[in-house]
Amino acid sequence: MIPCCVWLLGAGLWTHSAAAAQTGKPARHDAAVPADASQLPLDQYARLPVCTLSADGLHLAVEPCRTAPTRQPKARRAVTAIIPTMPARPVPRTAVAPPLPPSPPLHQTPRPTPATTCDAGGCYDAAGVRHAGAGGNATIAPSGQLCLRDGVWLQCQ
């Protein structure tokens, strides 16, 4: 006797079977199938139909039922790994600009001139030009430049 539909009615379980279908009276299998499907032996539990919802979606279509088997993930297909490569290093530049010539000095300091005679009012240089005294060892040339006296030398800025 193979159960095709299981109904939970009232206090007991009623199972429609091929023999019960011929007599028109459902066969009662309270002792064979417990109300809780988790208490069944594993082989009987495996024979139960998979749980589905009824057409109205509010209750199970068939009770007792077993949970649906877990879905196995599909096997992944082999795909070649795409590994991006680093760009090639640029070739170092060989042509280098020639070095610039050294720039000329902005201001050339004139050479010191020898002072021939000095007095309280200033000094005379080797060309005979008078440098007026400006206090201490400083003098002022006729062109207005400031000159410093260092011993016998006059250094104009």
Automatic annotation (TrEMBL):
Organism superkingdom: Bacteria
Keyword line: Signal
Keyword Signal: yes
Signal peptide location: 1-20
Protein name: Uncharacterized protein
